[in-house]
Amino acid sequence: MSALDTFLAMGGYARYVWPAYGFAVLVLGGLLVQSLSAYRRCRRELAALQGEGRQ
Amino acid sequence: MHRFANPARFMRLSTAILPWCAGACALSLALGLYFALFIAPPDYQQGEAVRIMFVHVPAAMMATSVYAVMAAASAVALIWRHPLADIAAQSAAPIGAGFTLVCLVTGSLWGEPMWGTWWVWDARLTSVLVLFFLYLGYLALVNAFDEPVRGARAGAILALVGIVNLPIIKFSVEWWNTLHQPASIIRLGGPTIDASMLWPLFVMVLGFVLLFVTTLLLRMRTALLAAKVRALRLAEVERMTHAPAPVSS
């Protein structure tokens, strides 16, 4: 078994360890990405509205 | 305090802080994951499964800490009517719910190989599940009113009442016989975890705290911008309805 396989196997606990890390990345990363895209969308909307106002 | 937290000043301050916060968060999470997955030794009893701890424990700490932040902001909102406090509480809630969900799921994934069960209705697990429902209840309540001010007030009261759950979570492992282990980090007499696992854990906790602050600042800024968008749209509608009808020739 290569070093990578040994690492991925997690001493036989791969099916518990990796889903745990994966779920954390999914939920916490997802929240961050969603917050960031909502922020950008809001900024674009505001810029568009303020652009209209100036005309 | 009002001087330091008016919305305009918050926007300026957060613009300056946000990139540093995000950078420090990325750095500490990268370092923390490296320590957690490669450097920390396997446990003498749990083997490699112990690595779940490096996600589970920081998530659990954040689940309760974010609730404390949310309740403190709610208190400020109720007492001083501070405009930013409601926004802070409402922005913190979904992040806290996320941390709580991660805590519950990683705990379940750790429980199955170590305890032989995904779930047990012991005091610790049940009180954390209640915390998750408190977050969801708060979010539902805040959005259940046509008038945002009333929703915010009802939510703030629920958040304050829910504080009672925090000491129950903390001391559940001492007050009742739980399958969950008692505290091994924040306890009288110091931590009982070996330094080789404690340091990676600290770095991960730091990363989670910075992740919370980064996401919170982003959501608070979004809420303030959204309020401005609403005000501008309202002014637009106002202008259109009051404008004199176009004269036809």
Order of H and E elements of chain B: HHHHHHH
Biggest sheet architecture of chain B: none
What's the main sheet of chain A like?
none
Q: Give the termini separation of chain B.
A: 59 Å
Helix content of chain B: over 70%
What is the gyration radius of chain A calculated from CA atoms? 22 Å
Helix count of chain B equals 7
Beta strand % of chain B:
under 5%
Counted beta strands of chain B: 0
Low-confidence stretches of chain B at least 5 residues in length (pLDDT < 50)? none
* Chain pair forming the biggest interface: A-B, 28 and 38 residues
Can you give the mean pLDDT of chain A? 91
Q: Supply the helix-strand structural class of chain B.
A: mainly alpha
Question: Overall pLDDT of chain B, averaged?
Answer: 92
Draw up the topology in text:
The complex is a heterodimer of chains A (55) and B (249).
Chain A: H1 3-9, H2 14-54
Chain B: H1 7-39, H2 53-80, H3 83-115, H4 123-142, H5 148-161, H6 165-175, H7 195-242
Helix pairs in contact in B: 1-7, 2-3, 2-5, 2-7, 3-4, 3-7, 4-5, 4-6
Description:
The complex is a heterodimer of chains A (about 55) and B (about 250). By secondary structure, chain A is an all-alpha fold. Chain A has a domain at about 25-55. Chain A has 2 helices and no strands. The longest helix of chain A is centred in the middle third of the chain and has 41 residues, at about 15-55. Chain A is rod-shaped, with a radius of gyration of 22 Å. Chain B has about 250 residues and is mainly α. Chain B has a domain at about 50-185. Chain B is built from 7 helices and no strands. Chain B has helices spanning about 5-40, 55-80, 85-115, 125-140, 150-160, 165-175, 195-240. The mean pLDDT of chain B is about 90. Classes of the chains: A mainly alpha (about 55), B mainly alpha (about 250).
